[in-house]
Specification:
globular, alpha+beta, 2 helices
Length: 97
């Protein structure tokens, strides 16, 4: 399996979502974190399994939260480009590629 590198802006997005959820419900925030970790594990195991998305990326949707992970597979690693909300600013992250 290839190592996963998380773009600093994607990490900030994840942290922001976690903090927002924490203010609403600690259990929701912990659930989000667990689901995000599971998504990273699944995409690391089989990155080509997930649908092609914009600008040569792929994405994996979270099951219980309105977020998806935008990533691309490179020869030596998998790069997480964004942890994006499903209803906000589509494609805003394309400058990170």
């Amino acid at each position: 399996m290839k190592p996963v590198r998380v773009h600093p802006d994607a990490e900030a997005e994840s942290d922001g979502a976690f903090e927002y959820l924490w203010d609403q419900s600690q259990s929701a925030a912990l659930g989000f974190d667990a689901e995000l970790r599971d998504a990273f594990s699944r995409l690391r195991s089989a990155p080509k399994m997930y649908a092609q998305y914009l600008h040569g990326t792929r994405r994996i949707l979270l099951d219980r939260y309105p977020y998806f992970v935008v990533f691309r597979e490179l020869p030596r690693k998998i790069e997480i480009i964004a942890i994006a909300h499903c209803k906000r600013r589509p494609g805003y992250w394309k400058g990170r590629i």
